[in-house]
C-alpha cells in the first residue's frame, strides 16, 4: 500500500500545511546562494576582472534576464513530464555546480557557471513556487498569507547572503564568497530532500504521468533525456551571456513563443478561464515594468552606493541586503494585515495592490534622486536616502510580488499552472533586459549626459534633485556620475508613479475579468 497521504490529511503547522515550512527553508537557502552571488557579480567584474561599466552591465543583465526565461521551459517540463519534485532536485544540482565553478578563475568557467545557474534556476524557481500553491485548495483564504510567509523565506536568504558573502569575499578573496553561496544551495537542496523523506507533501508534486515519463527515445526515458538536454543547453546560455549584445534577438524569440503558446492555451479553455488568463498576462506586464526599475538594485544602485554614497557599517555589496531586511521586517505584518482585512471584507483586490506596488516603487526611486540635495564636496550623498528609498520600494514590492505569485496559481487553468508561473517569471527576463538598458543610461563617457537630463524629463530631474546638466558639467567627474544616476532614478520614479495611479483607476475592470478571484 502507498504511504502517500492525501491533501486533506497533510500535517498542519501554525495554521498552514507543514510542507510550507520545508519549502520556506529550501527557498531561503536557494535564495541565499542566488543573492549572495548576485551581490558580488557586478563588483567582481568591475573591480577584479576590470570590465568597464557597459560590459559589466551587459553581462549582468543578460545573466539575470536569462535566469528568468528558463522557468517557462522548466515549468512546461514539470507540468508535462517531471513533476515539481524531480524538477526542483535537478535544478538544485545544476545550480550547486554553477556556484562552485565560479571559484575557478577562467573565462570558460565564469560563463559556464552562469549558464549552469541559468538552467538550474529554470527548473527550481517556478516549480517550488507552484508547489506552494498546490499545498492550498482553490479559494483557501490562507493562500495570500502562505505566499507572503514563503516570500519572507526568500528574503531572509537575500538579506543574510550579501553581508556574509561580501565579508568572505573581502576577507579571503572573491572566490570564497562564491563558494559560500554554493554551500547555501547545497543546504537548500538537503532541506527539500528531508521534506520528501518525511512525507510532508502528501501526494503533491509527483510525476504527472509515469507512462509519459518512462517513454523511451534513443534508449533513454524522457526524464534522463531532459537531464542530458539541460547539460547541453548550458553551453548555449553561457554563450548568450558572453555575447550579450545579441540578446535582443532572444527577446523577440521568447516573445513570439509566449504569444503563440498563450494563444494556444486561450483557444483550449473556457471563456471564464480566458479572461483570467488575460488578467495574468496584464499582471505580468505590470510586473515587467516593476522589475525593470526595481532591478537597478544589483547593478546601477550597487555602483551608485559604491561611488556616490557615504556608506556606514557596510560595503556596496552589503547594500543589496537592505531591501531584503525590510522584507523580513514587514512580511509578517503584511501577512497579518491581509488576513485581518479579509476577515473584515475590506482587503483591496489584487489589481489595486499592483497599482499601489508601482506607486511605492516610484516613490522609492524619487527618494534616491532626492539624495542629491545632501551631496558633499566628494560627490557623495547621505546613506539615509538609500535606506529610506529601499524601505519605500520594499513596501511596493510587498504589495505586488508575493500577491502576484499567489494570483498566478489561481488565475491559471489547472493544466498549465507551472507554465503560467514561468510566464510570471518571464517578467523578470524582460525586466532585467530593460534594467540593463536603464543601467547603461547611468554610465558617463566623455562628459555626455543621458536622455533624461534634458527636455521634459530634464525639468523633472531639476525639480526633484535641484541639479541640471549645466550645474553638473562644471563639477568633477564624480559629480557628473552622481547627476547621471539621480536623473535616471527621478525620471523612472515618476514613470512608475504615473503607471501605478493608472492601474488603480482601471482596477474595477480588471477585478470583473478575474471572475470572483480576489
TrEMBL record:
Keyword Transmembrane helix recorded: yes
Gene Ontology MF annotations: peptide transmembrane transporter activity
Transmembrane segments: 20-45, 57-77, 84-102, 108-128, 149-170, 176-196, 225-243, 249-270, 277-294, 322-342, 354-373, 385-404, 416-435, 488-510
UniProt cross-references to Gene3D superfamilies, sorted A to Z: MFS general substrate transporter like domains
GO cellular component: plasma membrane
GO biological process: oligopeptide transport
UniProt KW keywords: Cell membrane, Membrane, Peptide transport, Protein transport, Transmembrane, Transmembrane helix, Transport
Places the protein is found: Cell membrane
InterPro entries given in the database record: Dipep/tripep_permease, MFS_trans_sf, MFS_Transporters, POT_fam, PTR2_symporter_CS
Membrane topology: Multi-pass membrane protein
PANTHER family the UniProt entry points to: PROTON-DEPENDENT OLIGOPEPTIDE FAMILY TRANSPORT PROTEIN, RESISTANCE PROTEIN MDTM, PUTATIVE-RELATED-RELATED
Full protein name: Peptide transporter
Organism: Aequorivita aquimaris
